[in-house]
Amino acid sequence: MFLVLFFISQLTVAQPPGCTDNPHFDDFDFWIGQWEVSDNTNGNLAGSNSITKELNNCLVMENWNGASGSTGKSINYFNLLTDVWRQVWVAPGYSIDISGSLMDVSMELVGTISYHNDAAYDFRGTWTPNDDGSVRQFFEQYDSEAESWVVWFDGLYVKRE
Fold first, then answer.
1. Given a cut of 60, is residue 2 above it in pLDDT?
2. Cα-Cα-Cα-Cα dihedral sign, residues 109, 126, 116, 120
3. Bridge-partner residues for 68, per DSSP?
4. If residue 90 lies in a helix (H) or strand (E), which one and from where to where?
């Protein structure tokens, strides 16, 4: 038994390949960086966001720190089987699960926001790179009573020096 365990421990396990063989793995690269985020509706600082590419370029990781003390994290990945990007966001009080793809130059994801009080709503997000290197992040939640989309967050990402 010891000999078998010793032999197995000496085997070299090949690392799986990174996510570089499909151009879609780079679709969200315009969002990678260290950002200061302001609210487009009033110009106030909303917070800071660190967006990194991890796990051999297979995962885009988001770490949010809001100016008011809020926090949240998302994982974003391209699924080769479904041919779509998926974001799963978790924060105290709610979570978001949206998917979609790059449309022209904007990443457009749709799905659901679920509040911890058991309410869930249709939700969509659009990330658009601007010519100056900034990124607009625009989120909307569907209001079924008004039968219309309502702005949930409209942010401007500017890279930190």
1. no
2. negative
3. none
4. strand 84-91
124, 107 in Cβ contact below 8 A? no
Residue type for position 90:
V
Q: What is the per-residue pLDDT across 139-160, written as a single tens digit (0 to 9) for each?
A: 999 999 999 999 999 999 999 9
Closest to 158 (Cα-Cα) out of 65, 71, 33, 29:
33
- DSSP-assigned beta bridge partners for residue 73: 63, 90
pTM of the model: 0.88
DSSP type of residue 14 = P
Pick among 3.10.20.90, 3.40.1190.20, 2.40.128.20, 3.30.1360.110: CATH of 27-159: 2.40.128.20
- Classified as helix, coil or strand, 26 is helix
Rounded to whole angstroms, the Cα distance separating 147 from 79 reads 31
Which tokens go with 28? Answer: 């969200």
Question: Which residues touch 142 (CB under 8 Å, ≥6 apart)?
Answer: 121, 122, 123, 148, 149, 150
Task: At 2, list the tokens.
Answer: 């010891």
Q: Which tokens hold the place of 135?
A: 């990124």
- The DSSP call for residue 69 is S
